[in-house]
Amino acid sequence: MTEQPTGGDLSRLRQLNAVAVMRALRDDKPLTLTELARRTGLSRASTEDVARELIERGWVAEVEPTVGTVGRPARRYRFRADAGRVLGVDIGGHTIRALVTDLDGEVLHTSTVAVTPQLGRPERLTALDRCVISALAGARVTPGQIWSTGVATTGLVDGTGRVMLSDSLAEWTGVDLAEHLRRLVAAPVRVENDGKLAALAEAWRGVARHAKDVVFLLAGVRTGTGLIIDGKLHRGFGNAAGEIGALPAAGWLKAPDHLRAWSGGKDEFEDVFQAARDGDRAAVTAVRRYTRDIAVGVSALVLTLDPELVVIGGGFSRSADVMVQPLRDQLDRWCLRTPEIRISTFGGEGVAYGAVRLALEQVETALYEGTELPSATMAITAGRK
Amino acid sequence: MTEQPTGGDLSRLRQLNAVAVMRALRDDKPLTLTELARRTGLSRASTEDVARELIERGWVAEVEPTVGTVGRPARRYRFRADAGRVLGVDIGGHTIRALVTDLDGEVLHTSTVAVTPQLGRPERLTALDRCVISALAGARVTPGQIWSTGVATTGLVDGTGRVMLSDSLAEWTGVDLAEHLRRLVAAPVRVENDGKLAALAEAWRGVARHAKDVVFLLAGVRTGTGLIIDGKLHRGFGNAAGEIGALPAAGWLKAPDHLRAWSGGKDEFEDVFQAARDGDRAAVTAVRRYTRDIAVGVSALVLTLDPELVVIGGGFSRSADVMVQPLRDQLDRWCLRTPEIRISTFGGEGVAYGAVRLALEQVETALYEGTELPSATMAITAGRK
């Protein structure tokens, strides 16, 4: 029994096919037509047709045949990561960081500007502008060549890119970051909480990339979180998921006091972690008490979600080797099942990578849904190649 | 540019089409061919083809044309909810409940058997058997006519249907409920925690059916939970999600002590809720203190997930009118955003409905994936019609 699909069925099939080819090429090295057809489950004819269309649209390129191939060399196709550029920005209390990457997330340039949590709003925005302009210049791209921008900030962020609540940065509640950044870059700008984006980075290319459900801790003077549920960042109904630190019973607000007691009241903690590593008894006790307080809130997250992994990232992640065992001991005490605990390998760059990922997600949405990307950007001649 | 899809493309398209037609008919009243084609986006020819195949397989029936229709009456199709039967069982501390339903979840018969938490394992399993046999007899179906069985129990359950941990039912840890029930019903048997299944029932046909993210409380002498995330039941990596009650800081273990203080130490609480409703000052205080303790754990869940809804179900749900305001006051105090709070309308039957839903999910999976259902069951002549 054969059947000729109608126009409606065919155009749906066509779109599915284009998405399948793009995904296969994004996820892999260059593929021959035969490989691509096998990977996508499409016929050779359909695959060739889709590939031709994607080349016309600038997303896919043919690759030169490998030298030394025996017989007639097969054509190969690759995703054109250099077709566009994205920008990822992390606005932290002490550092603003901007990354320009290609569509594979390969970093072309990084800029950082030092700030303080006490800086006023205009001064922080000026530092932000300086950092972004420097990153664009360093990557040799114009603002119009940025296809998409992701921004990370401390605090709660609404769906339009405005900071709803920030109690750690001065004069930051109410600032409309999306609007502000659209003065510098024309393309879509999305803003998200820093803990959420650092979690996204771990799920994308970090230690959580093979895990479905993850509790991520942005551990520092303040503790933030990001939750990966079923492989996706969980935002919540009002974009306020993961804020368990606000509950006094979670123990996170007072936890750093144990470290401060050692450091003489200062919020500089590298020394106490180093001393604990060297076996200093008072430092070991301070770190254990800090971890015991943090562990109550972490246990609440773990008991709620039963994740596969707990990931420690953020400023303290470089010192997390001395935290892992005390944390595991406490989780063993409170939880029904203690998940694996891993330390982020991004150091201080996890949040910025997450912002890049947020920007790339916008590009992929546009790509897979067939919506238009900023038209000016199709004419890029890659600045660095 | 037209193109003839190959065999592989076509069979994939065919399966998608069958699923689209089944979903449209399951979700709606009987539909004409024209309506069905519009709903699914398929061509008339494809739709008719799929409908014919589904009729042959027993899933779909043609409906008699409406009397009095002007002109030649159009054929209409309906999903055959009477094609099979499912069984849902709730094994609680005080009641075992079994429902037999059709494939729409319409209840054909309910049986209940009274038990106690102290009952030993063999006695509880005997009571379970009695309840199931009575439900099958009441619905006039043979064990072989049950396509799928869902079972709810207190405690943690593993993926094979064994109770990993139960501290509220005597001798219950380690019992293999799936194996036990397969002696009575041949079809697939799945077992799940009662709080999780009651949450599933709310998302299916309860007060949470339009919500994406839900914190469900199975409120009773013990407090359980179920989490709906992104419209789906969240189980967790080890199927242990939602167990925040295990954390002493959550306040759930000691919360009922406030009610017991009023009831003279007994675990019978209808009177204290009624007295609070009537304005008895000591009862109002007892309920407020109970709610204040419960609210710490609920706040942890809300701050973690930022759900759209909190739903109160379980044994206390009939009395929850006196709990809602004190709970809201506490959530306002601890949470960044207090979600809407709603009371389940299932009374004591929510868990059993959830078990039915679990059974129906298995049927749907088989249906949509094209896997075989037990062959004997295709020959049902509906017992009750």
TrEMBL record, chains A, B:
Protein family per UniProt: Belongs to the ROK (NagC/XylR) family.
PANTHER family assigned: BIFUNCTIONAL UDP-N-ACETYLGLUCOSAMINE 2-EPIMERASE_N-ACETYLMANNOSAMINE KINASE, ROK (REPRESSOR, ORF, KINASE) FAMILY
Residue ranges occupied by any HTH iclR-type domain in the UniProt entry: 17-62
Protein's recorded name: ROK family protein
GO terms assigned for molecular function: DNA binding
Organism: Kribbella flavida (strain DSM 17836 / JCM 10339 / NBRC 14399)
GO biological process: regulation of DNA-templated transcription
Signal peptide range in chain numbering: none
